[in-house]
Every structure is written in C-alpha cells, then in structure tokens.
Amino acid sequence: MADSFKIDFQAHGKVESGDLIVFVGENLKPTAAVAKQLGPKAVDLIAKAAAAESFKGKAKSAMSIVVPTGLSVDRLIVIGTGGEKDRANVDFAQLGGLIAGKVNGKLATVVLDLPETEVSPEAAADMALGAQLRRYSFDRYKTKKKDEDDGKGGGRLVFSVADPAAVKKAYKAREAVQQGVILARDLVNEPPNVLGPQEFAARAQALTKLGVEVEILDDKAMKKLGMGALLGVAQGSVRGGRVAIMRWNGGKANDKPIAFVGKGVVFDTGGISIKPGAGMEDMKGDMAGAACVVGLMHALASRKAKANVVGAIGLVENMPDGNAQRPGDIVTTMSGQTIEIINTDAEGRLVLADVLWYVQDRFKPKFMIDLATLTGAIMVALAQEYAGLFSNNDELAERLTAAGKATGERVWRMPLGPEFDKMIESKFADMKNSAGRFGGSSTAASLLQRFVNDVPWAHLDIAGTAMGSPATEINKGWSSGWGVRLLDRLVRDHYEAR
C-alpha cells in the first residue's frame, strides 16, 4: 500500500491543475452544474472526443482528453454512468476503484455530481474507500520496487462534494474498514515460513493497541480444555497450534456479545492425505477466514463500534510428518463428541469444531458466524462469485445476504438438512470428517452444525472468494481481504447500540 497516496474532500469549485474527473450519461452530457463549471468549449470537446474514440458513456467506461481546450488541467477524464438501470445499481466502492486506476498518481480532482444519480455522503465515502483499496499492493519482499510516481502509488485524490464535512465524517469509519481489509490482505499474502501459528497469534495480540482484549491459548491450554480435534491437525507440525481470542467491549456491559470464528490453517499440505504438488503454494492462504476475523476486529475497534464482539481463530499448520494423524484415527473434541478421520485434508472443520464449541460454551453469544476456506466443492457450485452461506437461522442469513448486496461481497445460501447430516455418520465414531465428493460443502457444514448447539449460526465457505479471486476495480492482488466489509456492514446495520 502506498502510504503517500492521500484522500481529501473539498467543496465544489474551479479546478486548475492535475487531472479533472467528471461523469456523463449515455447522452454524453454532464450535469448542468458541471457543464457550467467546464464551460461550453470543454463540453463540446467531450462530444467531439467521444465520437473520435467511440465512447458511448456506458457504465464503467472511461475516456481521457489530454490538455483539454478551454481548461487549465492536464487531463480531463470522463467516466460513463450508463443508462437508467445502471444508475440505479451503482457500486460506489467499485466506481472509486475505477477512478483510482485512471489517475496519474499526482493530483486528481473528482467532481462528484453524477447525471440523475444522488451521491450521499456515505456513497462518496464508499468511493474514497474503493480508491484506497485499489492502490493496495504487497511488495515487502521485493528488493526492487517501482517508483511511486509511476501512476500506481503516491499522489492526492480530491473529491469535490456538496458537503465536505458530512463526507469526512462518513469516511472516518471507512478508513477503519480500509485498515481492516488491508490487514487481512497482508496476513493472507505473507509467506508461510514467516507467518506460522505463533506469529499469526502475535499479529492478533497487536490489537491490544486499539483496546481489544486478547488471550492466546497454547498447546498445553488447549489440551487441558480437551480440544482434541484441533490438536490432531496440529500434531504433524513442529510448530504448535494456537487459539487467539479477541474481545472488543464497545456495547453495554450486560449485552451478550456477537461472535466471529475463523479457520487459520497457516499452511495446508493435506497432511497424510497429501495434496498434489501443483498449486500447493497457494495453501498459505488457507487461513483467510482467520485473517478476516482479525481484520474485522481491527475495523470495529478502530471505529469504536458500539457492540460487544468476540473474535476467535484456530491457528494450525497441517503437515505430514511421522507424528501426523492418519486416516482411520479417531479424535475426541472439546464437546466430547468423537470424529473418525477419513481424510486428513478435511482438516479445517476439525479446527472450527473445537473453536465453535469453545466460543458458544464460554461466551453464550447472540450469534456465531464462522469463515473458512473450507471446500473446493463450493467453487464447483458458485465459482468465485459468491461465498457459500449455510445457516440455522433465517434472520441471520437474510441480514448477511443484504449486507453482501450492499458491499458487493455476495453470499448465496446453500442447503443444510438431515440428509446431509446422515451422510457424515461413522461406523466407529459419532461422525466422520469427510463424506466424499457429493454435497461436500453441505456435509462439511453439517459437521460444524453439531458444535453450535442452539446458538444462531452461519457458516461462510470462502474458498473461492478470499484468495486467487477474480480481479475487480478494488482488488488487483491475490488476496482480497474478503469478508471484512461484509461483516462490518452487518454489525453496523443491525447489532450496534443506537
């Protein structure tokens, strides 16, 4: 992330230098106020340049005019807003990312006056958030770095708005979210030799600077608690497992907390059921669920969310050494239930089983949401466009779906039911950790459901969205930081004290 890239807000007025960004619809005309600011020569120039460039003003299209006649700016960048349907469904964060990708890295001013589109202070703040997220890059291990003035870093992006004070207030919370997303992206991008379970736990411990209470459970503490499923995954690695519990107490003292649980397999070889070698390097990202939870706790604490929140992450490395668990082993979970190991590569559900039980038992939360890069099967069903949503509570599922639509981090509800639960029955234990290929995401979720009791719960399978996901206007890297914006919106909309 280029620290020298700055965001600012100012009242509408004349722009005399740098890049100037304006918006037009399919008629290629800016609003009357923007047309007056530009002057008739510049407005006529837009139409002539559009004809020469075959620019139609479609949504997300852009056209640059260098040294525009009648203006003192270096470039006039024209962004299309499309037709009526497009204007009714603007993703302002993505639009902000699009703009950040077009400017030259010096000074750019965006006139936030869109044809037939209301831009609220919150929408303007979302655009600024999107612009910042677009600038992210992870290059800390490169010895040769690009200059910041190459158009990818540095510079100042100014949003010209009707009410700068209101936008600045809205953006303050977005800055906290931005920091949380960046933290999550950084954690997922870190190489596995740098970020083991202990090192990851230390990153979580750093949240104490923001007022988060953090507690770390080591192997000895987990053994005492009876977390045999999590420890079974960890036993093949020379690096011991950890559980990090983060608590933000921003709500009323007697209010039950809300809880978020993350799978943190810092590297997943598959264990004895070893994965193919091709692409195994990507398994450093098998802790993206835990990364999201840490990023979310950072965001909530930074913006001082008025809610009591617990974040818990299970951190292990799944390795195939001589002490690793085997297919056929039976482990005893903290709940007392037993699990037969069919496939050691179905390890994330074992980690989550103990952490979910611990959280519901100790904290008695209003609800629990877990996030995990859990199954390849979810990518077969939903590609990389949606995260799979499994839930025992319709209200929670509906609220997550709405938050997904609002942030662009979309979820799709998948089935749970007794048929899938029956598929994980074992001949030798209470359940088995894998029921085979068919319904793989639903059977994995069914196992998790056995560890939540009657607590409202949702499981998000983020295997397709958290790492190696398709590039968007706000994410050009390998790690997306998926889930931080979604869950922050969920908390903000429904679970903060008013």
Automatic annotation (TrEMBL):
<dbReference type="Pfam" id="PF02789">
    <property type="entry name" value="Peptidase_M17_N"/>
</dbReference>
<feature type="binding site">
    <location>
        <position position="263"/>
    </location>
    <ligand>
        <name>Mn(2+) 2</name>
    </ligand>
</feature>
<dbReference type="InterPro" id="IPR011356">
    <property type="entry name" value="Leucine_aapep/pepB"/>
</dbReference>
<feature type="domain" description="Cytosol aminopeptidase">
    <location>
        <begin position="343"/>
        <end position="350"/>
    </location>
</feature>
<dbReference type="Pfam" id="PF00883">
    <property type="entry name" value="Peptidase_M17"/>
</dbReference>
<feature type="active site">
    <location>
        <position position="349"/>
    </location>
</feature>
<comment type="similarity">
    <text>Belongs to the peptidase M17 family.</text>
</comment>
<feature type="binding site">
    <location>
        <position position="347"/>
    </location>
    <ligand>
        <name>Mn(2+) 2</name>
    </ligand>
</feature>
<feature type="binding site">
    <location>
        <position position="347"/>
    </location>
    <ligand>
        <name>Mn(2+) 1</name>
    </ligand>
</feature>
<dbReference type="InterPro" id="IPR008283">
    <property type="entry name" value="Peptidase_M17_N"/>
</dbReference>
<protein>
    <recommendedName>
        <fullName>Probable cytosol aminopeptidase</fullName>
        <ecNumber>3.4.11.1</ecNumber>
        <ecNumber>3.4.11.10</ecNumber>
    </recommendedName>
</protein>
<feature type="binding site">
    <location>
        <position position="268"/>
    </location>
    <ligand>
        <name>Mn(2+) 1</name>
    </ligand>
</feature>
<keyword id="KW-0479">Metal-binding</keyword>
<dbReference type="GO" id="GO:0004177">
    <property type="term" value="F:aminopeptidase activity"/>
</dbReference>
<dbReference type="InterPro" id="IPR043472">
    <property type="entry name" value="Macro_dom-like"/>
</dbReference>
<dbReference type="InterPro" id="IPR000819">
    <property type="entry name" value="Peptidase_M17_C"/>
</dbReference>
<keyword id="KW-0963">Cytoplasm</keyword>
<keyword id="KW-0464">Manganese</keyword>
<feature type="binding site">
    <location>
        <position position="286"/>
    </location>
    <ligand>
        <name>Mn(2+) 2</name>
    </ligand>
</feature>
<comment type="function">
    <text>Presumably involved in the processing and regular turnover of intracellular proteins. Catalyzes the removal of unsubstituted N-terminal amino acids from various peptides.</text>
</comment>
<feature type="binding site">
    <location>
        <position position="345"/>
    </location>
    <ligand>
        <name>Mn(2+) 1</name>
    </ligand>
</feature>
<keyword id="KW-0645">Protease</keyword>
<feature type="binding site">
    <location>
        <position position="268"/>
    </location>
    <ligand>
        <name>Mn(2+) 2</name>
    </ligand>
</feature>
<keyword id="KW-0031">Aminopeptidase</keyword>
<feature type="active site">
    <location>
        <position position="275"/>
    </location>
</feature>
<dbReference type="InterPro" id="IPR023042">
    <property type="entry name" value="Peptidase_M17_leu_NH2_pept"/>
</dbReference>
<keyword id="KW-0378">Hydrolase</keyword>
